[in-house]
Write a structure and sequence with these properties.
Membrane topology: Single-pass membrane protein
Subcellular location: Cell inner membrane
Structural class: alpha+beta
Number of helices: 3
Distance between the termini: 77 Å
Mean pLDDT: 79
CATH topology: TolA/TonB C-terminal domain
Keywords: Cell inner membrane, Cell membrane, Membrane, Protein transport, Repeat, Signal, Transmembrane, Transmembrane helix, Transport
Shape: elongated
Pfam families: TonB_C (PF03544)
Number of strands: 9
Order of helices and strands: EEEEHEEHEEEH
CATH class: Alpha Beta
CATH architecture: 2-Layer Sandwich
Low-confidence stretches: 1-22
Helix content: 10-25%
Subunit structure: Homodimer. Forms a complex with the accessory proteins ExbB and ExbD.
Number of domains: 1
Length: 143
């Protein structure tokens, strides 16, 4: 039996490294990682997901409804690992369709600029991958 309820889903606020969880139905939830490239680019905002909470309390069939592409996978990965308290309908545990909003937020003004600069510095330290062998090499000019 699958019950279709419109639930005001939870919102996870990722605020520059500190996490505030706001959800009464969650049994356990690890906050999403904020992708370094997205932080360096100053990308933030909500990612809205839709899925089904199984009878065991796990999110399944997760799909992205909206949100910045750079943040979508981090939101899906996080929500995939969350555990919800079982939903009961007339005393029976049931699957429930739900919508989840994961908010990525670096702050505003100087706080956002500082977080973005910090992420850009971290990103600059990441080694660049070597060119693949499939990449055509530039011919060496003849002398």
């Amino acid at each position: 039996m699958k019950v279709h309820l419109r639930l005001l889903a939870l919102a996870i606020y990722v605020i520059a490294g500190s996490h505030l969880l706001n959800a009464q139905t969650l049994a356990s939830a690890k906050p999403p990682g904020y992708p370094l490239a997205a932080r360096a680019a100053g990308i933030d905002g909500p990612v809205v997901l839709k899925g089904t909470v199984s009878k065991e309390g796990k999110m399944q069939d997760i799909r992205v409804l909206s949100g910045a592409p750079e943040l979508q996978q981090a939101a899906v990965d996080a929500v995939s690992g969350w555990t919800y308290k079982p939903y009961k309908h007339f005393g029976q545990i049931v699957e429930v369709d739900t919508t989840v909003t994961v908010n990525f937020n670096m702050g505003v003004g100087k706080q956002k600029a500082a977080e973005q600069a910090k992420a850009q510095a971290e990103l600059a330290k990441v080694p660049k991958p070597a060119p693949s062998q499939d990449t055509p090499q530039q011919p060496t000019p003849k002398q």
